[in-house]
Amino acid sequence: MTPVETTTLCDFGAGGRRSDALINTKAAAQEAVAGINCMHSIETIQQYLAHENQHANRTPVQSHLRERTREIRRDESDTEERAVA
């Protein structure tokens, strides 16, 4: 992969051009985290997590997906609390 190519989360094992093994490198993991941080739907995150669980089972990606889910739920809870107050 050249530096000018764009990488998406789909490139990591969901039919993309990059090898699943690359996610274990630090740079590839950082790219995956950037993609995960752009996710705003718990349903989307659950789909990616299901894929990871079934196919790649990459612990760093799974951990970040779970953390992103917690962040979204926390934000939703904060929004509900402000609406009540």
UniProtKB/TrEMBL annotation:
Residues 33-73 form the DUF8129 domain. InterPro entries: DUF8129. It comes from the Archaea. Residues 64-85 have a biased composition (Basic and acidic residues). Residues 53-85 are annotated as: Disordered. This is DUF8129 domain-containing protein.
